[in-house]
Amino acid sequence: MTIQQKNIPLVDLGAQYRSIKTEVDTVIANVLEHSAFIGGTFVQQFEEEFAKAQDVKYCVGVGNGTDAIIIVLKALGIGVGDEVIIPANSFIATSEAVTACGASVVFADCGSADYCISPESIAAKITIRTKAVVAVHLYGQPAQMDEIIALTKKHNLFLIEDSAQAHLAEYKGKKVGNFGIAATFSFYPGKNLGSYGDAGAIVTNDEALAVRCRMLANHGRAKGEKYDHHIEGYNSRLDGLQAAILSVKLKHLSEWTKKRRAVAQRYDEEFRGMKDLGIFPRVAERESVYHLYVVRTKKRDALREYLKAQGIEAGIHYPIGLPFLEAYKRLGHTPADFPHTAQFQNEILSLPIYPELTTEDQSRIINACAEFCENKTV
Ligand SMILES: Cc1ncc(COP(=O)(O)O)c(C=O)c1O
Fold first, then answer.
1. Whose CA is nearest to atom 10 of ligand 1?
2. Contact (Cβ atoms closer than 8 angstroms) between residue 169 and residue 140
3. Residue 376 pLDDT level (bands cut at 50, 70, 90)
4. pLDDT computed for residue 3 by the predictor
């Protein structure tokens, strides 16, 4: 008789909640007690804590990570007639934000062995209309910042770090969020620092930009004014409940990040020798926080099915490169325009990784991959 094993999900938010239940429940009751729903002390406190955690001067809480990018681009005056270069392999939020500002999306490919935006590809896409580059620290690993900074400086472009997947990640010992004019974060529930709904933030070391972002996120109001709107803005604020929950979780984030890195290290060691299973090269100076752990194999769909049959959930980030989505058909791109993105989208597979993933579950995932590689591959 075979014993039914429990399923291993791609992310397990329930396990995380149970580990901090008392703290979270207490703080939720606190917010309700104080009716601190919009703005107020919980938001202010979290903004200060998060700025400190990322080693930046200013943090502006907003409604979600997509709005964070839109608001930064708007605050920088980017709009109709401007071009913004973004990676071909990212979540659609990065490109949606550019279009939402009225600017034109220009995609750049990733490298042949690196899923982050390639500096060479950026260089090839710069025109006189280019105003900004949005570099995404994909899967939690910082992009090649030195080369990207050199390019943006040379061509006088704004650099924005889309750090939605990279809370606490470091490049050459410095936290992401310190390399461009501003960085944006998502606190979508499944992110390394996730709220219990939608939430996001903008961080910057530029005070004037922080003030303008805050104004835009709050109906164009100047600080403290209710009905005196200096500009038209948005309703995109971090709410009190989410801020209070995020403050609780932020206290655990370093520990959780260490645990993610330990799982990733074990996976790296185990997968390194496996036939037909590739891991992306690790670069010490680009210290990942492993929002996702992604392997590559030509037999991706078969491996995913094999894992599923064993109760192990895997994901694909992302199955269709942005330029090839129906949403960007108007741009007329073909796989030949972004060969690396086109190749990766058929080969990448995200395996479960989260701080609460037990050693036994890690072993099950590793063993299942090993069995697949030994038995099912030629
Ligand atoms: C790279 C990237 N950018 C932006 C976002 C958008 O964040 P949100 O879902 O909070 O709007 C996400 C999150 O899904 C993301 O992964």
1. 65
2. yes
3. low
4. 64
